[in-house]
Amino acid sequence: MRFTLRPESSAADGVRTRQFLLGDIPGVLWTPDGAGPGSRPLVLVGHGGGQHKEAPLVTARAERFVRECGFAVAAVDVPGHGERPTDPELDALATANGARIAAGAEPYPLIADFQGLVARRTVPEWRAVLDALQGLDDIGAGPVGYWGVSLGCGLGVPFAAAEPRVRAAVLGLSGARALAQDAARVTVPVRFLLAWDDERIPRAEGLALFDAFGSADKSLHAHPGPHSAPLPADEPADAARFFARHLG
Q1: Distance between CA 214 and CA 185 in Å, rounded?
Q2: What percent of the chain has pLDDT over 90?
Q3: CA 179, 168, 79 angle in degrees (round to 5)?
Q4: Are strands 144-149 and 42-46 parallel, antiparallel or unpaired?
Q5: Phi and psi for 211 in degrees, rounded to 5?
Q6: Cα separation of 103 and 80, whole Å?
Protein backbone atom coordinates (compact mmCIF):
# COMPACT_ATOMS: atom_id res chain seq x y z
CA MET A 1 0.00 0.00 0.00
CA ARG A 2 1.34 3.40 -1.00
CA PHE A 3 -0.05 6.69 0.29
CA THR A 4 -0.15 9.41 -2.36
CA LEU A 5 0.49 13.11 -1.88
CA ARG A 6 -2.45 15.12 -3.15
CA PRO A 7 -3.69 18.62 -2.24
CA GLU A 8 -6.91 17.32 -0.69
CA SER A 9 -5.03 15.12 1.80
CA SER A 10 -5.49 17.07 5.00
CA ALA A 11 -6.81 17.10 8.53
CA ALA A 12 -10.06 19.04 9.05
CA ASP A 13 -12.54 19.03 11.93
CA GLY A 14 -10.72 16.20 13.65
CA VAL A 15 -10.55 13.94 10.59
CA ARG A 16 -7.37 13.08 8.70
CA THR A 17 -7.86 12.11 5.04
CA ARG A 18 -5.26 10.12 3.10
CA GLN A 19 -5.32 8.83 -0.48
CA PHE A 20 -3.72 5.47 -1.19
CA LEU A 21 -3.00 2.97 -3.93
CA LEU A 22 -2.88 -0.78 -3.49
CA GLY A 23 -1.59 -2.03 -6.80
CA ASP A 24 -3.95 -0.30 -9.23
CA ILE A 25 -6.78 0.05 -6.67
CA PRO A 26 -7.27 3.70 -5.60
CA GLY A 27 -8.69 4.30 -2.17
CA VAL A 28 -9.10 6.82 0.62
CA LEU A 29 -8.61 6.40 4.35
CA TRP A 30 -10.16 8.58 7.05
CA THR A 31 -8.79 8.39 10.61
CA PRO A 32 -9.01 10.53 13.75
CA ASP A 33 -6.55 13.41 13.49
CA GLY A 34 -3.57 12.76 15.70
CA ALA A 35 -4.37 9.08 16.21
CA GLY A 36 -1.26 7.22 17.32
CA PRO A 37 -0.36 3.55 17.10
CA GLY A 38 -2.99 1.14 18.34
CA SER A 39 -5.86 -1.03 17.21
CA ARG A 40 -9.19 0.59 16.31
CA PRO A 41 -12.39 -0.52 14.54
CA LEU A 42 -12.42 -0.10 10.75
CA VAL A 43 -15.52 0.46 8.62
CA LEU A 44 -15.39 -0.12 4.87
CA VAL A 45 -17.86 1.98 2.88
CA GLY A 46 -19.07 0.87 -0.56
CA HIS A 47 -20.14 3.57 -3.01
CA GLY A 48 -23.19 3.48 -5.27
CA GLY A 49 -23.39 2.83 -8.99
CA GLY A 50 -21.85 5.58 -11.13
CA GLN A 51 -20.24 7.12 -8.02
CA HIS A 52 -16.78 6.90 -6.50
CA LYS A 53 -14.84 6.57 -3.25
CA GLU A 54 -15.25 10.25 -2.28
CA ALA A 55 -18.84 10.77 -3.34
CA PRO A 56 -20.67 13.12 -0.91
CA LEU A 57 -22.63 10.31 0.75
CA VAL A 58 -19.48 8.22 1.27
CA THR A 59 -17.47 11.12 2.66
CA ALA A 60 -20.27 12.23 4.98
CA ARG A 61 -20.66 8.71 6.40
CA ALA A 62 -16.91 8.31 6.80
CA GLU A 63 -16.34 11.59 8.60
CA ARG A 64 -19.27 10.92 10.94
CA PHE A 65 -17.96 7.49 11.91
CA VAL A 66 -14.52 8.98 12.59
CA ARG A 67 -15.77 11.95 14.64
CA GLU A 68 -18.48 10.24 16.64
CA CYS A 69 -16.99 6.77 17.10
CA GLY A 70 -13.23 7.19 16.71
CA PHE A 71 -13.20 4.61 13.92
CA ALA A 72 -11.00 4.36 10.87
CA VAL A 73 -12.99 4.34 7.59
CA ALA A 74 -11.91 3.40 4.09
CA ALA A 75 -13.45 3.35 0.61
CA VAL A 76 -12.12 2.29 -2.78
CA ASP A 77 -13.15 2.85 -6.38
CA VAL A 78 -14.70 -0.34 -7.72
CA PRO A 79 -13.92 -1.46 -11.30
CA GLY A 80 -15.17 0.96 -13.94
CA HIS A 81 -15.72 3.79 -11.43
CA GLY A 82 -13.82 6.81 -10.13
CA GLU A 83 -10.13 6.73 -10.92
CA ARG A 84 -10.20 3.15 -12.21
CA PRO A 85 -9.41 2.73 -15.91
CA THR A 86 -12.21 2.21 -18.41
CA ASP A 87 -13.38 -1.41 -18.37
CA PRO A 88 -14.53 -2.50 -21.87
CA GLU A 89 -16.51 -5.50 -20.59
CA LEU A 90 -18.40 -3.51 -17.96
CA ASP A 91 -18.96 -0.57 -20.33
CA ALA A 92 -20.35 -2.86 -23.04
CA LEU A 93 -22.69 -4.56 -20.58
CA ALA A 94 -23.87 -1.22 -19.13
CA THR A 95 -24.58 0.08 -22.64
CA ALA A 96 -26.47 -3.08 -23.60
CA ASN A 97 -28.49 -2.95 -20.39
CA GLY A 98 -29.37 0.69 -21.00
CA ALA A 99 -30.66 -0.16 -24.46
CA ARG A 100 -32.73 -3.04 -23.10
CA ILE A 101 -34.27 -0.89 -20.38
CA ALA A 102 -35.07 1.84 -22.94
CA ALA A 103 -36.81 -0.83 -25.02
CA GLY A 104 -39.01 -1.76 -22.06
CA ALA A 105 -37.05 -4.48 -20.23
CA GLU A 106 -37.47 -4.77 -16.47
CA PRO A 107 -34.45 -3.01 -14.90
CA TYR A 108 -33.93 -5.13 -11.81
CA PRO A 109 -32.70 -8.43 -13.33
CA LEU A 110 -30.22 -6.51 -15.49
CA ILE A 111 -28.97 -4.49 -12.50
CA ALA A 112 -28.59 -7.61 -10.37
CA ASP A 113 -26.66 -9.51 -13.02
CA PHE A 114 -24.35 -6.52 -13.60
CA GLN A 115 -23.63 -6.24 -9.88
CA GLY A 116 -22.93 -9.96 -9.72
CA LEU A 117 -20.25 -9.57 -12.39
CA VAL A 118 -18.62 -6.66 -10.56
CA ALA A 119 -18.77 -8.51 -7.22
CA ARG A 120 -16.68 -11.37 -8.52
CA ARG A 121 -13.88 -8.86 -9.03
CA THR A 122 -14.33 -6.66 -5.98
CA VAL A 123 -14.48 -9.28 -3.21
CA PRO A 124 -10.83 -10.37 -3.59
CA GLU A 125 -9.80 -6.73 -4.06
CA TRP A 126 -11.48 -5.61 -0.85
CA ARG A 127 -10.02 -8.51 1.09
CA ALA A 128 -6.54 -7.46 -0.08
CA VAL A 129 -7.26 -3.84 0.89
CA LEU A 130 -8.43 -4.99 4.31
CA ASP A 131 -5.21 -6.97 4.80
CA ALA A 132 -3.13 -3.90 3.94
CA LEU A 133 -5.13 -1.50 6.12
CA GLN A 134 -4.96 -3.75 9.16
CA GLY A 135 -1.20 -3.82 8.75
CA LEU A 136 -1.04 -0.07 9.50
CA ASP A 137 0.10 1.00 12.97
CA ASP A 138 -2.95 3.23 13.57
CA ILE A 139 -5.54 0.60 12.58
CA GLY A 140 -4.31 -2.88 13.46
CA ALA A 141 -6.40 -6.03 13.66
CA GLY A 142 -9.51 -4.52 15.24
CA PRO A 143 -13.13 -5.40 14.40
CA VAL A 144 -14.46 -4.54 10.94
CA GLY A 145 -17.81 -3.19 9.76
CA TYR A 146 -19.29 -2.62 6.32
CA TRP A 147 -21.69 0.08 5.09
CA GLY A 148 -23.13 0.09 1.56
CA VAL A 149 -26.43 0.60 -0.26
CA SER A 150 -27.48 0.04 -3.88
CA LEU A 151 -24.30 -1.09 -5.71
CA GLY A 152 -22.55 -0.92 -2.33
CA CYS A 153 -24.99 -3.55 -1.07
CA GLY A 154 -24.80 -5.71 -4.19
CA LEU A 155 -21.04 -5.93 -3.68
CA GLY A 156 -21.11 -5.84 0.12
CA VAL A 157 -23.27 -8.91 0.68
CA PRO A 158 -20.82 -11.33 -1.01
CA PHE A 159 -17.92 -9.54 0.69
CA ALA A 160 -19.48 -9.91 4.14
CA ALA A 161 -20.27 -13.55 3.36
CA ALA A 162 -16.66 -14.26 2.37
CA GLU A 163 -14.86 -12.19 5.02
CA PRO A 164 -14.97 -13.46 8.62
CA ARG A 165 -13.41 -10.24 9.93
CA VAL A 166 -16.67 -8.34 9.22
CA ARG A 167 -18.57 -8.12 12.52
CA ALA A 168 -21.57 -5.97 11.50
CA ALA A 169 -23.07 -4.52 8.31
CA VAL A 170 -25.48 -1.79 7.23
CA LEU A 171 -26.86 -2.69 3.80
CA GLY A 172 -29.86 -1.87 1.64
CA LEU A 173 -31.54 -0.77 -1.60
CA SER A 174 -30.92 -4.13 -3.24
CA GLY A 175 -32.75 -7.42 -3.75
CA ALA A 176 -32.46 -11.17 -3.41
CA ARG A 177 -31.64 -12.05 -7.04
CA ALA A 178 -28.02 -13.25 -7.19
CA LEU A 179 -27.56 -12.36 -3.48
CA ALA A 180 -29.77 -14.79 -1.54
CA GLN A 181 -27.16 -17.55 -1.21
CA ASP A 182 -24.47 -15.16 -0.02
CA ALA A 183 -26.93 -13.45 2.34
CA ALA A 184 -27.65 -16.79 4.00
CA ARG A 185 -23.95 -16.97 4.91
CA VAL A 186 -24.03 -13.55 6.58
CA THR A 187 -24.63 -14.25 10.26
CA VAL A 188 -23.36 -11.01 11.81
CA PRO A 189 -25.74 -8.24 12.92
CA VAL A 190 -27.35 -6.54 9.90
CA ARG A 191 -29.26 -3.27 9.54
CA PHE A 192 -31.15 -3.28 6.21
CA LEU A 193 -32.54 -0.16 4.53
CA LEU A 194 -35.51 -0.43 2.14
CA ALA A 195 -36.99 2.28 -0.11
CA TRP A 196 -40.68 1.38 -0.02
CA ASP A 197 -41.41 2.89 -3.45
CA ASP A 198 -38.17 1.78 -5.13
CA GLU A 199 -38.64 1.86 -8.91
CA ARG A 200 -35.46 -0.17 -9.56
CA ILE A 201 -35.65 -2.89 -6.92
CA PRO A 202 -39.08 -4.52 -6.51
CA ARG A 203 -40.24 -4.32 -2.93
CA ALA A 204 -40.70 -8.09 -2.78
CA GLU A 205 -37.06 -8.56 -3.80
CA GLY A 206 -35.83 -6.25 -1.07
CA LEU A 207 -37.95 -8.01 1.55
CA ALA A 208 -36.74 -11.39 0.27
CA LEU A 209 -33.13 -10.28 0.65
CA PHE A 210 -33.75 -9.17 4.23
CA ASP A 211 -35.39 -12.51 4.95
CA ALA A 212 -32.43 -14.37 3.39
CA PHE A 213 -29.81 -13.00 5.80
CA GLY A 214 -28.67 -15.73 8.16
CA SER A 215 -28.23 -13.36 11.10
CA ALA A 216 -30.39 -13.77 14.17
CA ASP A 217 -29.77 -10.06 14.86
CA LYS A 218 -31.19 -8.14 11.92
CA SER A 219 -33.54 -5.20 11.58
CA LEU A 220 -35.39 -3.63 8.66
CA HIS A 221 -35.66 0.14 8.23
CA ALA A 222 -38.20 0.97 5.51
CA HIS A 223 -38.81 4.52 4.34
CA PRO A 224 -41.13 5.97 1.69
CA GLY A 225 -39.77 7.20 -1.61
CA PRO A 226 -37.92 5.99 -4.71
CA HIS A 227 -34.46 4.44 -5.02
CA SER A 228 -32.72 7.79 -5.28
CA ALA A 229 -34.56 9.47 -2.39
CA PRO A 230 -32.27 10.72 0.40
CA LEU A 231 -32.12 8.38 3.35
CA PRO A 232 -34.07 9.58 6.43
CA ALA A 233 -32.24 12.24 8.41
CA ASP A 234 -31.84 10.00 11.45
CA GLU A 235 -30.21 7.10 9.57
CA PRO A 236 -26.59 8.38 9.75
CA ALA A 237 -26.74 8.76 13.53
CA ASP A 238 -28.48 5.42 13.84
CA ALA A 239 -25.77 3.72 11.75
CA ALA A 240 -23.08 5.24 13.97
CA ARG A 241 -24.83 3.89 17.08
CA PHE A 242 -25.25 0.49 15.40
CA PHE A 243 -21.52 0.20 14.63
CA ALA A 244 -20.51 1.57 18.03
CA ARG A 245 -22.63 -1.12 19.69
CA HIS A 246 -21.24 -3.99 17.63
CA LEU A 247 -17.65 -2.88 16.97
CA GLY A 248 -16.94 -1.23 20.31
Answers
A1: 6
A2: 76
A3: 50
A4: parallel
A5: -65, -30
A6: 24
In this prediction the pTM is 0.93
pLDDT in tens, 205-228: 999 999 999 999 999 999 999 999
Pick from 141, 244, 87, 3: nearest CA to 30: 3
Decide if 161 contacts 182 (C-beta within 8 A).
yes
Please return the burial class of 186, using the count of CB atoms within 10 Å of its CB with bins 0-12, 13-18 and 19+.
Answer: buried
* 8-state DSSP, 77: P
- Provide Rg for the chain, Cα atoms: 17
Closest CA to 173 of 146, 137, 209: 209
Q: Each residue of 48-86: pLDDT tens digit?
A: 988 999 999 999 999 999 999 999 999 999 998 889 988
